[in-house]
Amino acid sequence: MxxxxxxxxLMIPDGQxxxxxxPSGSGKSTLLGxxxxxxxxxxxxxxxxxxxxxxxNEDALAxxxxxxxxxxxxxxxxxxxxxxxxxxxxxxEIAGRRDAKERVAxxxxxxxxxxxxxxxxxxxxxxxxxRVAIARAFANNPSILLAxxxxxxxxxxxxxxxxxxxxxxxxxxxxxxxxxxxxxELAASADRRISLRDGRVVSDSDSGEPGAEIEATxxxxxx
Length: 223
Hints:
The protein has 7 helices and 10 strands. It has helices at about 30-35, 60-70, 85-95, 100-110, 125-135, 155-175, 185, and strands spanning about 1-10, 15-20, 45-50, 50, 70-75, 145-150, 175-180, 190-195, 200-205, 215-220.
């Protein structure tokens, strides 16, 4: 049995921008997976807005993710057969949003891709693809954005642009942002910085603000 995350106790206030840093294998991505309900802890529980997601079934978790959680990954995970506009539109159509097309138009403006709306991912640069992914993540106005190395596949200039755009949109939507990154300069921009090593929290610059949108008391292992 390999323990990925040892006993961990976190409270993350609504609207906080938190960065998670640490070497490869320290448990950063596992922590995001647990908060998203994509992985289950060996022990403990995770609460989002007071709801214990660790006791939810898959249908309830899928509904919660669709309504409250947006994702941005290192790999863009765009659907290659859909245009930029259609990739952003997809989660809105699944949610049955009547204002879907108007919402997509606003999001394309936010990420400065109106002129590229009808281009397919293969016709877009890496930075443009990640901007589409950011717009898609904000499509359903989630209260939580989880970003796992979102600039990892980009050069420094595009990476900084994507990062600034993501933070700007996050502030605009007043969401909670948890960013996993190896880039200490980007991590330093956060309201709070958590450093992991060997599955343990070795530092936490928590400001001690009251109230929490995310509460996690967990341990995660795998065979």
